[in-house]
């Protein structure tokens, strides 16, 4: 707590004035351009590595940047009352947000634990909320990792039943440079995109082409951001010489010229 209190003083002496100016600009009418689900890991600073300003994005954080799928919910069963579906409704249906991002990262402790539980099932602790969270929401991700490790860098299929337009293929770590846990982390990001598309409340937005979902991955040791390219079927590093290609793909997925897509033209959104 002492470190936090000293940090508040430093904030007051440095960036507070600039932030207050941003608060005054948007006042009581923020209009976020995107919703980001990311991990609660203390090394993940999404507003820093996207250079987002006050009011630019909603951010939801949890262990492993997981979004439970909707297979247990619907018109004839219990309505979900967890944070992640509520955030989707608030941002997309009530807030008009068009871009949802899932951002995972290297050396994710949640993914390391999920991999460990799979490697040693007897380690599962029935009294652990974390173990239950990982096992319930990570089993599809683990299944795809097993397929990746068995078949090598072959395309994995990610299929959406509710929104078939959101189905895609992915080649994870084509040159086998990542350890298994980081492969798992990238697969987990993509599985969450399918989980998001499973929510019936978003079907209309997907059918109308007014909602776009994107996968990002951050290397916490190199400080590099990656974006999943559906056209290239793999994660692509975001840097100066790849930006134009990623932006072009985004324009095609938005299906509108750059000048007619304010999210892009105003520079509020990292391409996906």
Structure commentary:
With 272 residues, the chain is α/β, with parallel strands linked by helices. It is 42% helix and 16% strand. The strands form 2 sheets. Strands 2-1-3-6-7-8 form a 6-stranded mixed beta sheet, with helices on both faces. Strand 6 (212-219) and strand 7 (224-229) form a beta hairpin. Helix 5 (109-119) crosses helix 6 and helix 6 (129-151) crosses helix 7 (180-197). Mean pLDDT is 89; it is low at 256-262 and 264-272. One of its GO terms (molecular function) is carbonate dehydratase activity. It catalyses: hydrogencarbonate + H(+) = CO2 + H2O. This is Carbonic anhydrase.
Which consecutive residue ranges, at least 5 long each, have pLDDT under 50?
A: 256-262, 264-272
What can be said about the biggest beta sheet?
A: 6 strands, mixed
Helix content bin: 40-55%
> What is the CA-based Rg, rounded?
19 Å
Protein structure class: alpha/beta
- Tell me, briefly, the overall form: globular
Strand content: 15-25%
Widest sheet, order of strands: 2-1-3-6-7-8
Average pLDDT metric: 89
Distance between the termini: 38 Å
- Count of discrete alpha- or pi-helical segments spanning 4 or more residues: 10
* Total count of strands: 8
| Element order: H for helix, E for strand | HHEHEHEHHEEHHEEEHH
Function: Reversible hydration of carbon dioxide.
Binding site for Zn(2+): 39, 41, 105, 108
Cofactor: Zn(2+)
EC number: 4.2.1.1
């Amino acid at each position: 707590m002492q470190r936090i209190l000293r940090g508040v003083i430093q904030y007051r002496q440095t960036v507070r004035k600039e932030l207050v100016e941003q608060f005054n600009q948007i006042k009581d009418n923020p209009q976020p351009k995107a919703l980001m689900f990311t991990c609660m890991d203390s090394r993940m600073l999404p507003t820093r590595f996207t250079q987002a300003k006050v009011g630019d994005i909603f951010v939801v954080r949890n262990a492993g940047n997981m979004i439970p799928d909707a297979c247990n919910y619907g018109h004839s069963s219990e309505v979900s009352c967890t944070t992640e579906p509520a955030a989707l409704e608030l941002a997309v249906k009530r807030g008009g947000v068009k871009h949802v991002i899932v951002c995972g990262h290297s050396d994710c402790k949640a993914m390391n634990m999920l991999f460990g539980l799979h490697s040693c099932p007897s380690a599962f602790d029935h009294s652990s909320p974390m173990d239950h969270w990982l096992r319930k929401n990570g089993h599809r991700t683990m299944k795809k990792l097993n397929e990746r490790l068995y078949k090598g860098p072959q395309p994995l299929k990610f299929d959406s039943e509710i929104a078939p337009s959101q189905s895609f293929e992915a080649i994870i770590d084509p040159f086998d440079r990542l350890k298994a846990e980081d492969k798992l982390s990238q697969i987990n990001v993509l599985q969450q995109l399918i989980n998001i598309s499973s929510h019936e409340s978003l079907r209309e937005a997907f059918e109308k082409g007014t909602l776009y979902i994107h996968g990002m991955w951050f290397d916490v040791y190199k400080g590099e951001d990656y974006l999943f390219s559906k056209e290239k079927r793999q994660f692509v590093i975001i840097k100066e010489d790849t930006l134009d290609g990623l932006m072009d793909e985004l324009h095609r997925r938005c299906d509108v010229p750059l000048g007619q897509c304010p999210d892009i033209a105003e520079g509020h959104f990292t391409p996906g």
